[in-house]
Amino acid sequence: MSILSQREQDAKSRAVGVTQILEVAITEALNSGDKTLATVTGQACLIKSMVIHSVTAAHADMTTCAVTGGAAKVIEFIAVADATEANLDAIDKQVAWTGAVRLPATKTIIMSLVGVGANAADMIVTIEYEACVAGGYLV
Fold first, then answer.
1. How many angstroms separate the first and last alpha carbons of the chain?
2. Lateral strand order in the sheet of 137-138
3. Alpha carbon of 107 to those of 29, 38, 80, 92: distances in Å?
4. How many angstroms separate the CA atoms of 46 and 71, rounded?
5. In the chain, which ranges are E strands?
6. Which one-letter DSSP state was computed for residue 2?
7. Backbone φ, ψ for residue 44 (5° rounding)
8. Sorting pLDDT into bands at 50, 70 and 90, what band is 93?
9. Count of Cβ atoms closer than 10 Å to residue 33 Cβ
10. Which of 15, 44, 63, 111 has the greatest number of beta carbons closer than 10 A?
11. Are strands 20-26 and 123-131 parallel, antiparallel or unpaired?
12. Which residues, including other chains, have CB under 8 Å from residue 45's CB and lie 6 or more apart?
């Protein structure tokens, strides 16, 4: 059995049509504004789904944590009305989006943390995607 080098593993996982997952921990202040969750790198990627998962129940300062993407945040992944404290106010509560959005290299996915106080968030965002062209990935 051969052991693949890191470069070979990266190339294999970044092949066209191979599902990739990026998880991002959100621990910033709930009123801190825009946070870049991911940047499309190398080549275009197809974003297939996204989940905001509440790790704790303490999000009382949060108004919303909507997720958008693309140039000037024109793509709405998880809407302001869905990414609310009421929908994420208990351990393991989640809001999600499923669809298909193509983002070219250098485009970003942004979470907008809007709230009435600076208590810290405690959430995980999971993004499912695949490369449209070999070499595409999110960082």
1. 30
2. 75-78, 62-69, 108-115, 33-41, 137-138
3. 24, 9, 21, 29
4. 15
5. 20-26, 33-41, 45-54, 62-69, 75-78, 94-103, 108-115, 123-131, 137-138
6. P
7. -60, 150
8. very high
9. 12
10. 111
11. antiparallel
12. 102, 103, 129, 130, 131, 132, 136, 137, 138
Residue 14: per-residue pLDDT:
87
Q: Is 77 exposed, middle or buried (0-12, 13-18, 19+ CB in 10 A)?
A: buried
Check if CATH label 3.20.20.300 holds for domain 6-138: no
pLDDT at 104 over 60: yes
The distance between the two most distant Cα atoms of the chain, rounded to a whole number of Å, is 56
Question: By the 8 A CB rule, do 84 and 72 touch?
Answer: no
Query: For position 7, what pLDDT does the model report?
Result: 60
DSSP reduced 3-state for 60: coil
* Residue 72 CB contacts under 8 Å (≥ 6 apart), including other chains: none
The domain limits of the chain are 6-138
d(CA 129, CA 139): 12
